[in-house]
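Suppose you are handed a protein chain with no further information: no name, no annotation, nothing but its sequence. What can you learn? This example shows the usual starting point.
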Amino acid sequence: MTTPDLSALLDRDRANAELFDLLRIPSVSADPTRTADMAATAEFLRAKLTGLGFTARIDPTAGHPVVYAERLNAPGQPTVLIYGHYDVQPEAPLEEWVTPPFEPTIRDGRIYARGSTDDKGQAYAHVKGVELLLTQGELPVNVKFLLEGEEEIGSPNLEPYLRDHAGALKADVIVISDGSRFAPDVPTITYGVRGLSYVEIHVQGANRDLHSGSYGGAAPNPINALAEIITRLKDDQGRVTIPGFYDGIDDLTDTERQMWADLPHDDAAFAASIGVPALPGEAGYTTLERLWGRPTLDVNGIWGGYQGEGSKTVIAAKAGAKVSMRLVPGQDPERITQLITEYVPTLAPAGTTAAVHPHHGGRPFKFDLNSPYNLAANRALKRVFGREAVFARTGGSIPIVAAFNDLLHAPVLFVDLGLNEDAPHSPNESFAVSDYHNGILTSAYLLQELGAQTSTE
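A reasonable first move is to predict its three-dimensional structure. Written in structure tokens, the prediction is:
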């Protein structure tokens, strides 16, 4: 069966104009003064989807609302749930933006605006992909949209929403586009995400800050103690020393290691891109293997003692650090949190005590490379890019995947449309115009391929 070239049918100017209207709304979920803007964004999306013939509504939550829409006119065909988020990061620091963050501007083929890639541009590409398909008749599959407004603040109300609406959200596959491809012109399917255990370490010394002249040399120093504890959390081979930390993890397969070795990655270029002379890490693994397939432990913040201008000669009574551990399949975040909670106190030098305070976490996930959904996505991407997709994992963590798995019982398909160079969360966030247009085509072709797959089984 031949299908029309959808690229020739895409009205690119109109697609840009609509995205610009969406990007102009400052939907910053973390800012309580933007509540009306959050509601306006939800209404924008509801109205658009209603205009496309979807049954669409705005569902309130304890925080910002969820936009839900469905078009179920393909009996016997799969149901595809498309997830995205319409909230964006705060725009600060404003002075670092070249152009205003909520006035979309095209420079050198890129759309500069807060939310352009994360996630308004990627999510709206799916809306426009559906619209493009509808110009050719009915959709080949049943489609549902779930667009939330709290992803940038940790999705505190999404899990209760999923639990309350699990029946309505039932789907065969959940499609997410909220990340980065491996490289420009390299279509990418993400088949795994790392998990997370995030904790704080608190070290206590004396019952008050002490004069460093009167007590130095005799009193314990919690900052020194914290530095020693942190140093002892890894060995000289870059391995985490927490007992049991590596127990039960899924080793990288030979197929994965070869697949990643074949990717167009260059360590020197990667190091140069972040302005460092070397890429330290766990011995025996390549950079990509360490980024995607191995667990980590990193200090994300540290505090203790005097931080103001000038000097203050004290031995601080307290010190602390924030620590994140990225986890791989086979590691349970609750277990890892318990292990570090038990281990750190044993590292406290004489005269100090150390305790771990857990924050939050998320489970790691790895999906079947050869699932029919991955294969359909590969065919769709090949139609857009003219080449096979590469399969990658991501070093980041997406805790909501666990909720989708536990509550909706549907596999997740990551088809990311952006790039790391888009600078999500940073000033001058952008989205390549070509990536936006290719994302629209990818979405349309993906739905076609999912429909065709069922009819040929």
